[in-house]
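Session log. Operator J.P. requested a structure for one protein chain; no other inputs attached. Running the standard single-chain path with token output.
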Amino acid sequence: MGKYHGSPWGFVLGKIGDAVGGVWKGIDWVRVRVDPTQRGTYALYLALKAGTIPPESFSYKQFNLRRLIIGPLGFVARCNMHNWINPVWTRLATARHEALTGINLFIKEAFAPFWGSMPDTSVEFDPVTNSPLLTSLLVSDGDLEPIAEILTAKYTTGTGALVVTWDDSFYGNGATDDMIYCLVMRKPLVTAEYQPALYSYGTCLFGSMITRTSATGTWTLPAGLTPADLTCYLIARDAADVIGFSLSKALQVTAP
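Structure written below.
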């Protein structure tokens, strides 16, 4: 509870009505109290859909940020701590002396391009016309030169084979024997109830037998998936594991 200190003309400490006050470095201060607004909750979303609250009481921007960005990214990261968060992001956080966990560094670096790829963050999500693009998602980062470009990524539904080709040229600190790793993200981002559903295949553990100058590689996924739901990411790592991993490159998967 807020209270006046000293005489009736003293200063405010704590919250009183629409004012809040305190002391900073021996200096009394007071300002108008501003309560945080939480207009993007799922409960408010349901109320909006039910017509029990006006549109101005709900924020799609807040809702989309939580449900389409933070939720799916945190979920897929927690499910792949061993596969690629610890090998790539926890290691990177340590190397950069970041006071962050691997998950937090991943979300921090991936957030801006992923959020920015949604056509209109202020309106309702649509998986076809108004959704963050998985091709904009950064799943790896580091100081090694990335591959120049993924050329094709073709998935055969009957066998589960994913065949990827890429430009094998390099101009910086890349090398012919850099190892190439493949990750695949599978939509949907969320369920119909806006629960996280983003799924990841692949690993950045151990040495890959596919190198930068292989220019093509085949990875095995479960059979029966839908190519349009899949996004392929290629990551390079130097053979000596001195430099570490590279920035990821992405491409939408297609049928053969």
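Operator note: The first strand starts at residue 3 and ends at 5.
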